[in-house]
Amino acid sequence: MGEEIGFLGLGIMGKAMAVNLLRHGFKLTVWNRTLSKCDELVEHGASVGETPAAVVKKCKYTIGMLSDPAAALSVVFDKDGVLEHICTGKGYIDMSTVDADTSSKISEAITSKGGHFLEAPVSGSKKPAEDGQLVILAAGEKALYEQALPAFNVMGKKSFFLGHVGNGARMKLVVNMIMGSMMNAFSEGLELADRSGLNPQTLLDVLDLAAIANPMFKMKGPPMLQNNYTPAFPLKHQQKDMRLALALGDENAISMPVAAAANEAFKKARNLGLGDLDFSAVHQTVKGGEL
Ligand SMILES: NC(=O)c1ccc[n+]([C@@H]2O[C@H](COP(=O)([O-])OP(=O)(O)OC[C@H]3O[C@@H](n4cnc5c(N)ncnc54)[C@H](OP(=O)(O)O)[C@@H]3O)[C@@H](O)[C@H]2O)c1
């Protein structure tokens, strides 16, 4: 379908999004820091680029889905990075969750070489990525947004164009700040129910019928009761998002004691070695004991 799209970063999200695009007939050239992770994509029909620069050279526009600001910057600015081959007529779309400053730095570098830039972080996790049900929070160059819409329409159930660079990053951080706080309240509730002699499964049933019912409680609750924290959204990334959201709160002098407490719990979970598990593993900071 049309020209080749580049895809950098094949972690939990990037792999699911890239496979979904391939299934829908898009031609992809992929790259991942650990190159062996490209093999599975090749089985689905992708080509491999040896470096981010090689991918950009080949493709009209390239998508990045990297873990954090350091990774997003490294893929663009380091040797063999995106910047080496970005030029007039080529676009770069960063779908990683980063802060607005990081996104602006990348945008300035890309546009100063004549390239086009869009940030497009996503709401939704592994399963929505596999199923093309993400919510895409784009900002930056409108023409690139329109060019990428056919791909966004496959990856997501809804795309928002939020204006200038930074707005997508900020929207994503606000959403994940709320989600991280909710996950902590949920964990405390599950443990409180259990330890005060209630059946936590019944709590899940009650919550599901209440005004505070939501897909996250419904999806994460049952595995949490089994101490099953198979990663869909790694806890270390949720803590990164809390950290970046709190910095945004600092910049705007917004007092966020609930988010700050949630961040402490995620930090504690990282300290307990739970960073690579799902973010719902913050439950263990309330439960204590062995996994
Ligand atoms: N998982 C979710 O539910 C979810 C939902 C919405 C948004 N997000 C956001 O989406 C992004 C990706 O999340 P994920 O869950 O896919 O994370 P992940 O599974 O940890 O994958 C991270 C990716 O970044 C790459 N990477 C890390 N450091 C790098 C560096 N220094 N240079 C180059 N590549 C580097 C990794 O490469 P290697 O394979 O070589 O390690 C991998 O491809 C994050 O910003 C996250 O916050 C995640």
From TrEMBL:
Active site: 172
A GO term, aspect molecular function: glyoxylate reductase (NADPH) activity
Residue ranges of domain 6-phosphogluconate dehydrogenase NADP-binding in the record: 4-163
Key words, A-Z: NAD, NADP, Oxidoreductase, Stress response
GO cellular component: cytosol
Domain 3-hydroxyisobutyrate dehydrogenase-like NAD-binding: 166-284
Pfam family, any one: NAD_binding_2
Catalytic activities: 4-hydroxybutanoate + NADP(+) = succinate semialdehyde + NADPH + H(+); glycolate + NADP(+) = glyoxylate + NADPH + H(+)
An annotated GO BP: response to oxidative stress
Function comment: Catalyzes the NADPH-dependent reduction of glyoxylate to glycolate as well as succinic semialdehyde (SSA) to gamma-hydroxybutyrate in vitro. May function in redox homeostasis and play a role in oxidative stress tolerance by detoxifying glyoxylate and SSA generated in glycolate metabolism and GABA metabolism, respectively.
Protein family (similarity comment): Belongs to the HIBADH-related family. NP60 subfamily.
Protein name, entry field: Glyoxylate/succinic semialdehyde reductase 1
Source species: Coffea canephora
